[in-house]
Every structure is written in C-alpha cells, then in structure tokens.
Specification:
Largest sheet: 4 strands, parallel
Number of helices: 9
Strand content: 5-15%
Helix content: 55-70%
Order of helices and strands: HHEHEHHHHEHHE
Distance between the termini: 31 Å
Structural class: alpha/beta
Strand order of the largest sheet: 1-4-3-2
Number of strands: 4
C-alpha cells in the first residue's frame, strides 16, 4: 500500500520507461534477465524501482516491489509473502514451493541440533521453523536456495502472468560486509540465476559509492 501511494505521486520518465521496456521484453526469452539501477545516495534508485514495479504490474507481470533484506533467506521469505498477496488464487502453491525448498535444510539442522542438545527432533524443528518464519533465524545464508526458489516461482507465475519481476533494493545491505564468503555467495546467486531458463527478471539497485 505504501509503494502504491508513492507510485501515484511519481511519473515515469522516458529513460526509465525505455529501461523498463527493455527489461520486460527480455523476460521469457529462454533465460533469466538481469538489470541494475545504480547511482549515489539520494539519487532516486528506490523511487525508480517503485515505478518499474508499478509498470511491470500494469503490463501483466507478477512484480515484487523493491525489497531490502539482510540475507538471502530473509529476502526469499519476503518475496514469497508478497507473491502470495498478489496471487491469492495460487497462494497455497507459492507457500508450498517456499516451504519445500527450505524444508530439507531445516530438517538437517534440526537433526544436528537435537543430537547436540539431546532434544526431540520434532521439538527442535518446530522452534527453528517458527524462528525462520518470523525472520529471527536463517539456515546458513547460502544463495542456492534463493536461485531455486526464484526460478521455480518464475515458472509458476507463468500460469497466470507474463512472468516474474523481482527488485532487490539496496544490494549492499543484502550482501553485508564485503569479504570472501560474501562475494562467493553473490557469485553463486548471479551465476546460478544466469543458468536458469525461467521467465524471471532480477533488477538490482545499488550505490555507486
């Protein structure tokens, strides 16, 4: 609702309209699409992302508004929640897809922690699932699950839309401190998505400073 009110107060400049057209027309061409909006702090990247999101929705895409998170698992949970809201008829399918991809890691960690603390696996799993759903815990921060989720959500969204558009707001916040492991996860995410043949576009917004 906040972004919808903001979009009503903004206008789509010609350059951004051309950018949006290029991104949206490339979706469904047999591979995922990548794009970025860059500029210094206060340049209007988030506002541009909001306009891109609004334009994509009007063009018949399942579009996720600019979403800023601190890890890949949190980001995927946010995408799932927003997708469910925009596609109420397929809410159960989206939720099932999200839980299916995250269940394997959750079960593995639950078994490990249950053994370590000599607790019932079912009890530990219930606690971890509750923490995951409320954003208080992430399995391991790797990005391969996000790749799988976005790719399969793109395929699912093609049932009722022209494809999936996801806008990652403030990429630097998602990455956190730049070190070897951070760059490795980013590379895993980028190259993982590049190999997926799914009707999905990922648009990044990031500072140039």
């Amino acid at each position: 609702a906040h972004y919808e009110r903001l979009a009503d107060r903004l206008w789509l400049p010609p350059q951004l309209e051309a950018f949006s057209k290029t991104v949206l027309e490339s979706i469904g061409g047999g591979k995922s699409t990548w794009a970025s909006l860059t500029g210094p702090y206060g340049f209007g990247k988030t506002a541009s992302g909001v306009l891109l999101w609004c334009h994509a929705r009007e063009e018949g895409f399942l579009a996720i508004p600019p979403l800023s998170c601190t890890n890949y698992d949190e980001f995927a949970a946010g995408v799932a929640a927003l997708a469910e809201e925009q596609a109420p008829k397929d809410k159960a399918r989206v939720r099932k897809l999200f839980e299916e991809i995250w269940t394997e890691s959750l079960d593995r960690i639950a078994r490990t922690e249950a053994k370590r603390y000599e607790l019932p696996v079912r009890k530990v799993r219930t606690v971890l699932k509750d923490q995951l759903e409320h954003g208080r815990w992430a399995p391991d921060g790797h990005s391969h699950r996000l790749v799988e989720f976005l790719a399969r959500l793109g395929e699912l969204s093609a049932r009722w839309s022209r494809g999936l558009v996801v806008i990652v707001d403030e990429l630097q916040q998602l990455l956190g401190p730049l070190d070897v492991s951070t760059l490795s996860r980013l590379r895993e995410f980028v190259w993982g998505m590049r190999t997926e043949q799914t009707p999905c576009a990922v648009v990044l917004t990031l500072d140039t400073q």
